[in-house]
Every structure is written in C-alpha cells, then in structure tokens.
Design a protein that fits this description.
- By secondary structure, the protein is mostly helical.
- It has one domain.
- Helix 1 packs parallel to helix 6 and helix 3 runs antiparallel to helix 6.
- The chain is rod-shaped, with a radius of gyration of 27 Å.
- The two termini are 27 Å apart.
- The model has no long low-confidence stretch (mean pLDDT 83).
Length: 166
Amino acid sequence: MTAEERKDRLNEISKYTVSIPSNPDTQGYTALFQILSALSSYYDRVCSILREGIEDKFRVEKQIALAREEYENEKNAMLLKDEIRILKSSELRVAAVDVQLVNKRKKITQHEIDLQEVQTFINEVSLVFEGIKDKIRTIKRQIEIGVLMNGIGEIGKSDIDKKIRI
C-alpha cells in the first residue's frame, strides 16, 4: 500500500460519524439496532483496512531484512577484495566499503522510513477500531438496560448478541 493509499484509507474512515442517543427511549430501540447495523458494517471495513496495514507492515519488514542481508553480503564480499584488504585499519576498510555501498544504505533507510509510516497508519486505524468497539458496547448496554428496565419482550439477549459481531 502506498502512502497515498494509506492517506485515502484514513480519510475514508475518518468521515464516518455516529451519535449515540443518551436516552434510547426517545428514539426507540429500532433506531439503536439501525445504528448498530451501520456500525457493524463500518467495523468490518475498518478491520479490513487494519488487516491491510498489518500485511503492509510485514511486507516492509521483509524488504528491510532482504535489503540488510544484501548489504551485508556485498559488504563482506568487498572486504575480501585486495584493494580493501591493503588498508591498515579495519575502520578504514569498513568506511571504504560503506562509501561504495551508499545506495544500499539509502535503500535500507527508505524502507525503515516506510515502516515508521506504516506503523503510524496502523496506530491511527487501531484508534478508530477501538472507538467503534466502544460505541458498539455502549449501544449493546443501552439495549440490554432497556430490555431489563422496560421488558421489551420479543428482543432477548441472544437477539442482541446476533446483531453484534464483536
């Protein structure tokens, strides 16, 4: 996923808002179930985006590992060359090799920056994810309290649990 795609995903999930009534009796429980249904769809979408972010993180971590391995292999091969081995100190030898492998180091650094961006993305999506779970729990509690207080009758706890997928 590119930085632009991550930005688009964050914009997508930040546009959704829902207000939970403080007194469900004023709107009725049908309205709460409608809000709950909308939140369930939103929850599924945020889960999908979070999964994409985690997959992206694993992909970037693999790229970092491969780039580091490639760098180390080339560095070790260069250290064995005669023009490098004739240098007096090991620091000079490593410095001479590092100068020649600067593009490999840049590649590693860029992947590390990408990893930080992906981790930030995951953290932001996780906050939205937790917020949705809190709203779903709040609505579930309101419905359960309504069932206990008002004896809604045909709506039982198992019906509530069927509508809630977390």
